[in-house]
Q: What sequence folds into this?
């Protein structure tokens, strides 16, 4: 009795010890968020940031003692830096590794598995025919090990070797203890449901399709990053040119102010001309402030895209775009570009892969709607003896062998679940096919719109260039008229403003034409430039 109590006590101590190892304060990653963090909304303390001295026009015009550092970058250099450092691209380049591991995991389902089982059984059974109630005592030790080998046909082959030792105090036992061994080979093979290589490789095939979809999305992300880089580059270029134009406008307004002062001092103009010129100068200063703010925004946008050390978004280093626009007129054939876009766009490839997944799913669901018929066969060799060696000798002599053949049948009554799953697979394929048609039409519209925008921007370049030339001549004539006393500073300011606006519009037309080329390439699934781009997944570093 004491021995039994000791065994039970040992079992309970073992259970509590295992559970006790689960320390609730163990250093696992956890995160607790307080209610105040998510439910309390703080206010922005503006009074803490109030300036002691309000800025004036003169302080605005004062240049800093040290000019910010400058980095000259070409468009090609910016592309290379974006491919190397862009944060969005870094995130996407990890996805192919994840998808590949999913494929590897599915392929591993056909790996062989080693198994072993060991158990010890001690029994003490009362005997009602024994007056002293001594009962029957004994013990059994069972140990078997083997290998399970899954087959691509859906079956399983099992190799098993069992070892048994039994002992008891039964009077009619001839051998005590007795050793017995069994070595068996068994196979279980489905004949309908879950049978066939295509059915059992369905999950692998889907994982490979998903891997290709991930690769297509990664390529699309590379194209998107480069196209976005190009757009940001040209907008930064435009911001610099716009600032130059607004600075030129300020210089012209300052010249007009000095000119008005000279004529007033000489008695050829009224004092109001100076006031008009000062008003024009103040207005041009406001334009410079807006242009500088726009340039800072474009600088931060470029730095965020590059994500380069030393070019932090809050840093003072300025990026100077050195690549100039090259406005060349192109004649494209819309039909060829549409065909090229349908061939190159990764969205179309993704839909093709989705269709392949849907077809595989239909085949799999057709198989799952079949009845279950499994064929089972086991070949077993037996051995026994007074010792383990005797048992193994008899086993390897193969004098005693068993054969077992069986068939398992399971036919669903109604089978509505399998039928519903099959219909769902058909609907999913129809949905993807409809999406493909819609995407094809959308790509056609995108290409045609990009072509129209490109031609429109080319016409804008021609028109704005002519307008700039005419406004420059008109400004020179207006200044000449002012010097001859025929016009006022207001007239000069108006023509000066028109000239600046014409120059600004020409800059916008030039940069928008370059951006339209980028959009056209993006619509066709390609990139601008002379060199192709090959991408690789992120290094498989798990640290």
A:
């Amino acid at each position: 009795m004491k021995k039994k109590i000791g065994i039970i006590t040992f079992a309970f101590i073992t259970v509590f010890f295992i559970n006790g190892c689960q320390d609730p304060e163990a250093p696992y990653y956890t995160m607790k968020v307080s209610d105040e963090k998510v439910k309390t909304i703080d206010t922005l303390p503006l009074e803490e940031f109030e300036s002691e001295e309000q800025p004036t026009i003169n302080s605005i015009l004062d240049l800093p003692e040290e000019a910010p550092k400058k980095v000259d970058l070409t468009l090609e250099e910016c592309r290379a830096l974006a491919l190397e450092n862009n944060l969005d691209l870094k995130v996407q380049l990890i996805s192919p590794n994840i998808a590949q591991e999913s494929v590897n995991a599915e392929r591993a389902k056909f790996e062989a598995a080693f198994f072993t089982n060991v158990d010890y059984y001690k029994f003490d059974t009362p005997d009602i025919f024994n007056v002293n109630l001594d009962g029957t005592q004994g013990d059994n030790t069972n140990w078997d090990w083997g290998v399970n080998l899954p087959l691509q046909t859906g079956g399983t082959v099992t190799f098993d070797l069992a070892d048994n030792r039994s002992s008891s105090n039964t009077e009619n036992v001839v051998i005590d203890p007795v050793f017995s061994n069994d070595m068996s080979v068994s196979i279980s093979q489905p004949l309908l449901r879950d049978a066939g290589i295509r059915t059992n490789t369905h999950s692998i095939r889907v994982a490979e399709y998903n891997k290709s979809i991930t690769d297509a999305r990664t390529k699309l992300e590379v194209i998107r990053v480069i196209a976005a880089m190009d757009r940001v580059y040209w907008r930064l270029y435009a911001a610099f040119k716009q600032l130059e134009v607004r600075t030129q406008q300020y210089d012209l307004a300052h010249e007009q102010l000095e000119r008005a002062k000279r004529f007033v001092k000489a008695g050829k103009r009224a004092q109001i001309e100076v006031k008009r010129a000062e008003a024009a100068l103040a207005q041009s200063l406001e334009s410079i402030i807006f242009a500088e703010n726009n340039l800072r925004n474009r600088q931060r946008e470029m730095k965020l895209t590059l994500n380069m050390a030393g070019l932090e978004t809050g840093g003072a280093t300025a990026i100077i775009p050195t690549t100039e626009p090259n406005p060349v007129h192109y004649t494209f054939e819309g039909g060829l570009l549409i065909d090229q876009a349908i061939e190159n766009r990764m969205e179309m490839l993704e839909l093709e892969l989705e269709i392949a997944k849907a077809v595989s799913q239909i085949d799999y669901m057709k198989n799952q709607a079949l009845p279950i018929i499994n064929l089972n066969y086991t070949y077993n060799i037996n051995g026994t003896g007074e010792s383990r060696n005797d048992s193994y000798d008899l086993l390897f002599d193969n004098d005693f062998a068993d054969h077992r053949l069986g068939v398992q049948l399971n036919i669903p009554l109604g089978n509505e679940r399998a039928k519903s799953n099959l219909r769902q697979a058909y609907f999913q394929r129809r949905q993807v096919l409809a999406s493909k048609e819609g995407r094809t039409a959308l790509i056609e519209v995108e290409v045609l719109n990009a072509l129209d925008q490109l031609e429109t921007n080319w016409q804008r370049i021609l028109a704005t260039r002519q307008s700039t030339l005419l406004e420059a001549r008109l400004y020179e004539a207006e200044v000449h008229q002012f010097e001859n006393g025929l016009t006022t500073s207001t007239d000069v300011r108006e023509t000066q403003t028109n000239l600046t606006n014409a120059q600004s519009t020409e800059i916008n037309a030039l940069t928008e034409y370059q951006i339209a080329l980028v959009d056209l390439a993006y619509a066709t699934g390609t990139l601008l430039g002379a060199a192709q781009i090959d991408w690789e997944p992120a290094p498989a570093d798990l640290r």
